[in-house]
Amino acid sequence: MIKQDISENQVKLAYLGIGSNLGNKINNIEKTKFKLGQYGIKILQSSSYYESLSWPNPKNPKFLNIVLKINTNFTPSELLKICKKIERDIGRKKTTINSPRECDIDILDYENRKISGEIFLPHPRMHIRNFVLFPLFELNKDWKHPVSKHHIKTLIFSLSNRDIRSIKQI
Question: What pLDDT does 103 receive?
Fold first, then answer.
């Protein structure tokens, strides 16, 4: 009999970024939340919806984004696999990087840890993305970046004026 490390079964706190810029965006995000629940992932908080320009090509349809604060028993790798499956279930197809999509799920932060390898955490570009920082700030005004240790307010104030002005809470 293999003894499982007690820490393996403990509930972990994580933040997920969810976005959509194709189809019924709100419906896509709500379906994503429902499917996460079907895997036993508990949503503790959900931010408001935020509308932002598509990145990196602002000519693509605008995105709706939210951030979720979740509890999970899954490891980061397991959580990533579930997120990729849900993206496909919602309608995401394999296309060029950053092309419009029905569903995009990013693991932003997992237990405030730095992880490299199959998955990179915290999300490597989260600190420069208005559509991540604003909804994350709504959920946790005291959050600090696991690597840089910068407070979320510092990261928001580091954004360009254009990035600050171009996002809208719905």
Answer: 96
Q: In the structure encoding, which two tokens stand for residue 29, read together?
A: 């995000």
Give the CATH number of the domain where residue 47 resides. 3.30.70.560
Query: Which residue from 128, 137, 151 is spatially nearest to 45, judged by alpha carbons?
Result: 137
Per the DSSP assignment, residues forming a β-bridge with 17 are 67, 106
What is the count of structural domains for the chain? 1
| 41/35 Cα distance (integer angstroms) | 9
Alpha helices in the chain (DSSP H): 6-9, 25-38, 76-90, 130-139, 152-157, 161-165
pLDDT in tens, 73-113: 999 999 999 999 999 999 998 887 778 999 999 999 999 99
Q: Which domain holds residue 67?
A: 10-169
| pLDDT of residue 53 exceeding 60 | yes
Residue 2, in any domain of the structure: no
- The answer to the question of residue 53 being in a domain is yes
Pairing of strands 50-52, 63-72: antiparallel
Q: Does residue 135 lie within any of the structural domains? A: yes
Burial class (CB in 10 A: 0-12, 13-18, 19+), 146: middle
Give the highest mean pLDDT range of 14-18, 116-120, 161-165.
14-18
For the purposes of burial, counting CB atoms within 10 Å of the CB of 39, is it exposed (0-12), middle (13-18) or buried (19 or more)?
Answer: middle
